[in-house]
């Protein structure tokens, strides 16, 4: 009695597998769910995709779109014993960066060599449109690029590619070069009466980092202010990019290890100066950063040697407490330093430190206590740098739309010094802006200080 049961069970398993295979074929195996980005690392060809007024590049602000060799393909697996697998595509291009794919071509109706038809996306069957010569190389039409569909077969697998070819050799396929921007492709495969689709958006983007090099062994000299400055022109040796013109590259510099990312000053402009003082006599390094129009970053590092050849820097035997700007590491003047300690059975006492120049205070002696603290204060106009735009930024942080990405921003936004950022902070700053209040509650009027080992 067991053999028939095993036989029926085996037949059922075979039937189930056959049904499952029938449901899974024909099928597309490389249709991504997300929007892929194709990186362009090449140098722009000014004779391709440069046809005003039909093309516009937001990267460099003119009609010359940069282009990259893109692998647009569809991989399909047909049903065993089925007919031939057919593949076709519809390609939608946005050539003028208006987020509308106005230029459409289909594999069943490829435009003539060197051309696409713009503004045909609403036409029946994508017919008509404006002729755009995307290939303006000085060659005969028979040698200019034209769009093609390449089909490759391997067993039950069929792969379709969007390619370039020429009329002189239609089967000499090369990777298609598509312009920067947000585009879309709609693939269609068919086997017998079964049709499958893959419709996906994709982006072509410049991902190549700029090239930047630093001058080496830089020297700066302390002047009568007991400081020395290094300009960007002194530090930068050369900068270039594969796409962004040199005139549109942003270049800035800062002291090595201050923060990460492109160096900006307090006004949001590229930082172009680094200051040195009498306390900086060894191991001074700076980093020079370059940023292209696609926000690709690169930097170089070089050493700076400050010299006091005239003798402006005094010899200070005692240690110094110095205050410097977080953004550009420049000395802060007008800062009061003090040591606070508590004598036995008495109230806390603060001893002011004498000034030592360059935004520093001299610790000439230590208080008669086992524990003490060193503090700094600078009281200026409480509304220094505060605008209604700050209220907008704080609101975005509270709502989670654009959280602050640095600790110093959170310190600045905590108006009532509650160690939290809430709408109460917005209310307090608004009262200050409107003139209802003259200072912030439970807070210092303008400046907050922290030790330089604090990560913010």
Please name the defining characteristics of this protein:
five-stranded mixed sheet; elongated; 5 helices; disordered N terminus; 13% helix; 456 residues; mainly beta; six-stranded antiparallel sheet; 36% strand
SSE layout and pairings?
Elements: H1 2-24, E1 27-28, E2 37-40, E3 67-70, E4 73-77, E5 85-93, E6 103-106, E7 115-118, E8 130-133, E9 146-154, E10 157-166, E11 169-179, E12 181-191, E13 194-206, E14 211-214, E15 218-221, E16 227-231, H2 232-235, E17 236-240, E18 250-255, E19 273-277, E20 284-291, E21 297-307, E22 320-322, E23 336-341, E24 349-352, E25 355-357, E26 360-362, E27 373-377, H3 388-399, H4 407-413, H5 423-434
Parallel strand pairs: 2-13, 15-21
Antiparallel strand pairs: 1-4, 3-11, 4-10, 5-6, 5-12, 7-8, 9-10, 10-11, 12-13, 14-17, 16-19, 18-20, 20-21, 22-26, 23-24, 23-27, 25-26
Helix pairs in contact: 3-5
